Amino acid sequence: MQLAFLPSPPIGVIHLGPIPLRAYAFCIILGVFVAVWLGSRRWMARGGAKHTVGDIAIWAVPFGLVGGRLYHVITSPDAYFGEGGEPIRALYAWEGGLGIWGAIALGAVGAWIGCRRHGVPFPAYADVVAPGIALAQAIGRWGNWFNQELYGRATTLPWGLEIAPEKRPASSPDVATYHPAFLYESLWNVGVALLVLWADRRFRLGHGRAFALYVAAYTAGRFWIEYLRIDEAQQFFGLRLNNWTSIVVFTGAVVYLVVSARTRPGREELPDTEIPAIPAEQKASAV
Q1: Mind listing the pLDDT tens digit for each residue in 92-103?
Q2: Torsions phi, psi of 51, nearest 5?
Q3: Which pLDDT belongs to residue 94?
Q4: pLDDT digits (tens, 9 = 90+) for 153-203
Q5: Potential cystine with 167: which of 31, 52, 62, 148 (Cβ 3.0-4.6 Å)?
Q6: Within a domain: residue 163?
Q7: Which domain holds residue 236?
């Protein structure tokens, strides 16, 4: 008998009358809040306006959610369009299934649009929000814990995650504990956020390099965590699609770091500094 393990929540949704309150959604919302809060503090520390990060997030977050869901559905089509699948469930994002690659890619498009509308340099915005995005991912991963999904291989380690019988793989219905991949990734993402915060303060990263460091660090961890996972996924040459994506994105981020440091050293200035408040007596005289 295994003497120690991590339990899974017995439920992931509470109904307030006819309204379902889903833990997965709350984790995503909390992560977005933390990312905007930290990003705003970092933006103001660089002389930017107080509400700029939040205003641009209004564009970035919806784009990111749509992109995350699209990536998940495109890379896992059988669950929705295969034999026995239900196509309508492709819209049920609250049940879990947001691919970070799609979320970052399309979220970046939304952020770029927001930056254009506010006259803000997109690389500077990406640098400022990078550690907050890592923390948002760390928090969001706990939604997988409530849904009992995206766990790793079977294990008898003391921190093995107990999975309910109906949530276990068909290949091992009698095995109760698995690697808590969600926890590994959550802790890794906290470390990524701390790394970016330290490096940005130490080296004054600019022109998108803080964001590139976040991407490189995240993909390095995602590669080995993905290797532990046993949920169905497309594979190519013995590796899961997300492993190949990690390799490609990691390489691109490192190349950008090196090239950007040589061609555009230093840190850019922000154009949207706060406008000082006009004293009441000056307003009256102006009228």
Answers
A1: 776 667 788 899
A2: -100, 5
A3: 66
A4: 999 999 999 999 999 998 888 999 999 999 999 999 999 999 999 999 999
A5: 148
A6: yes
A7: 20-270
Q: 251 pLDDT exceeds 70? A: yes
Contact 167, 148 (CB under 8 A): yes
Tokens for 215?
């991407």
Let me know: does 62 contact 110? Beta carbons within 8 Å. yes
- Within 8 A by CB and 6+ apart from 134, the residues are 189, 190, 192, 193, 196, 214, 218
Amino acid at 148: Q
> Across the chain, where does the E strand assignment appear?
13-16, 19-22, 161-162, 177-178, 235-236, 239-240
Tens-digit pLDDT profile for residues 50-86: 899 999 999 999 999 999 988 888 877 777 887 777 7
Distances, alpha carbon 147 to alpha carbons 74, 90, 176, 197, in Å: 21, 16, 16, 31
The neighbouring-strand residues paired with 240 are: 235
Q: Which residue has the tokens 């977050």?
A: 61
Supply 195's token pair. 């790394």
Q: Is residue 140 part of a domain?
A: yes
